[in-house]
Specification:
CATH superfamily: Nucleoside Triphosphate Pyrophosphohydrolase
Distance between the termini: 34 Å
Order of helices and strands: HEEHH
Largest sheet: 2 strands, antiparallel
Number of domains: 1
CATH architecture: Alpha-Beta Complex
Number of strands: 2
CATH class: Alpha Beta
């Protein structure tokens, strides 16, 4: 949305798509790719959800599931998403 900071956008998007209000933690990385013929840049942060039981699929997502890191990686379709997951795990372990 116009004038919205990236962190504000991330918080809004998470809430719109999962019903979760989260607190952003450290920034992880950004990915860049082409979507529908246009360049797209996506920034990622670790986040903490005080009430994860409130999660439900909304808008652009079909399902909310809690997975182990290995299960999550097996479900990811794009290498860039695997990189984001691994960056998050590295940050949590470090």
């Amino acid at each position: 949305m116009g004038g919205e900071h990236d962190q504000e956008c991330a918080l809004r998007e998470v809430e719109e798509e999962t019903n979760l209000s989260v607190k952003l933690g450290p920034e992880l990385l950004a990915t860049e790719y082409v979507s529908k013929g246009r360049p797209k840049r996506v920034r990622y942060w670790l986040g903490e959800a005080p009430h994860p039981e409130a999660a439900r699929a909304q808008n652009e997502i079909d399902e909310v599931v809690w997975l182990s890191p290995a299960e999550a990686e097996a479900r990811l379709s794009y290498d860039r998403d695997v990189e984001v997951l691994r960056a998050a795990l590295s940050r949590l372990e470090g």
